[in-house]
Amino acid sequence: MTRILGIETSCDETAAAVIQRDDSGRGHILSNIVLSQLEDHAPYGGVVPEIAARAHVNHLDRLVAQAMAEAGLSFAELDGVAATAGPGLLGGVIVGLTMAKAIAMAHGLPLMAVNHLEGHALTARLLEDVDFPYLLLLISGGHTQFQIVEGVGRYHRLGTTIDDALGEAFDKVAKLLGLGYPGGPQVEVQARRGDPRRFDFPRPLKGRKDCNFSFSGLKTAVREVVNGLGALSDQDVADVAASFEAAVAETMADRLTMAVHLFRAAHPGVERPALIVAGGVAANQKLKAVFAQAAGRFGLALIVPPPKLCTDNAAMIAWAGAERLALGLTDDVSVAARARWPLDQSQAPVYGSGKLGAKA
Ligand code: KG4
Ligand code: ZN
Predict the structure, then answer these.
(1) Are residue 159 and residue 289 in the same domain, yes or no?
(2) What is the mean pLDDT of residues 2-6?
(3) Same domain, 101 and 192
(4) Which three-class secondary structure state does DSSP give residue 141?
């Protein structure tokens, strides 16, 4: 049995958690504390890196102490410390990683420098018995990608966004509609009372034989419609939101079909592979229905972790640390924080001309 402290500071959540991994590989969350900086960034309509880094500095000590107290453990009773070492906003990553290094050095504990995306990728195994390989769809404010998770530290990226992340597209559409930040949940609420057929928005990359994503053209199409409408009525807002959501849903269904084909071709022997959907956008009910339908059609075991573990948190970092420690994958205190750190390092980056999300 190992007990690991995890620290996450790569974007606008300061988080600390303690998890336990039994020798059988079962996971238990002993504490999981997340402090959102939403209010600090809301006036700017997005995450401001310098504000984020300072907020992490101000709160991390207290959150770590709280996570340890809730777990009922002293540092000496831990088996290791894990922190996000990238990708993310560098100032924030340095804050969390440095704290983890200090704790590891002071108490003689192994250090695990965790890739944030690996945290998302392995979360399902903290909750359930999920065997490798499985298909991961990560949809957040910073990332939109399909990965085949072949093992701890073994990832094969099938597709990624060539411009905006999906959560970022939701946030930008919300901004165009005069809704608050983060916009995804509000677009979803508006969409419920709108007409998804009123505007015929593009379905980006639909039918393409890869499984990459693109959302900047869709966002531009929404902007043109909104500008054309002038002063928006409540019904206009709802109809644009519903039509946007419908375009996203149809696009995701198409991209998922491609990803499943690619997964099956790579692993023909896996009878009922798991499809794990992680990231804040996984909370969207309409998209969840799309994933459930695809899972039924293609014989996949769909797992969408609960929102608290789907969005950024430190339990997933602690868990990834525990999985790494079990394989002897520890890091030296000289390990550096990284702003960019692709999970699958064998794949060339796919960058279009669009702006990338904070954590892309
Ligand atoms: O995973 P997350 O909490 O943080 C990042 O790592 O980015 O994801 C946040 C993103 C935001 O862009 C937010 O608008 C989006 O997830 N989101 C949603 C919904 N809830 C959150 N998008 C669509 N529908 C939702 N219900
Ligand atoms: Zn994340």
Answers:
(1) yes
(2) 98
(3) no
(4) coil
* Residue 46 token pair: 């997005």
DSSP string, 71-136: HT--GGG-SEEEEEEESS-HHHHHHHHHHHHHHHHHHT--EEEEEHHHHHHHHHHHHS--PSSEEE
3-state secondary structure of 13: strand
What are the distances in angstroms from CA 205 to CA 131, 133, 315? Answer: 31, 26, 35
For the Cβ of 185 lying below 6 angstroms from any atom of ligand 1, the answer is yes
Q: Are residues 262 and 340 in the same domain?
A: no
Torsion of CA 309, 311, 315, 316, to 10 degrees: 90
**What pLDDT is recorded for position 42?**
79
Q: Is the dihedral of CA 139, 142, 148, 152 positive or negative?
A: negative
Q: Is 171 in the pocket of ligand 1 (CB under 6 A)?
A: yes
Containing structural domain, residue 27: 2-125+309-356
Give distance in angstroms: CA of 47 to centre of ligand 1.
13
Q: Please report, for the domain that includes residue 29, its CATH number.
A: 3.30.420.40
CA distances, 356 to each of 141, 191, 294 (Å): 10, 26, 28
pLDDT in tens, 30-75: 999 999 888 888 788 778 898 999 999 999 999 999 999 999 999 9
pLDDT for the residue 145: 95
Which residue out of 116, 140, 285 has the highest number of ligand 1 atoms within 8 Å of its CB and is therefore the one to mutate? 140
On whether both 41 and 78 belong to a single domain, the answer is yes
Check if 283 has its Cβ closer than 6 Å to any atom of ligand 1. Answer: yes
Q: What is the pLDDT at residue 47?
A: 84
Is the minimum distance from the CB of 170 to ligand 1 under 6 angstroms?
A: yes
- Report the SS3 class of residue 274: strand
Same domain for 57 and 167? no
Q: Are 222 and 138 members of one domain?
A: yes
Domain count along the chain: 2
Residues 295 and 271 occupy one common structural domain: yes
Best residue among 116, 281, 317, 356 to mutate for probing ligand 1's pocket (most ligand atoms within 8 Å of CB) is 281
In terms of domains, do 21 and 170 share one? no
Query: Do 31 and 18 form a contact (C-beta atoms < 8 A)?
Result: yes
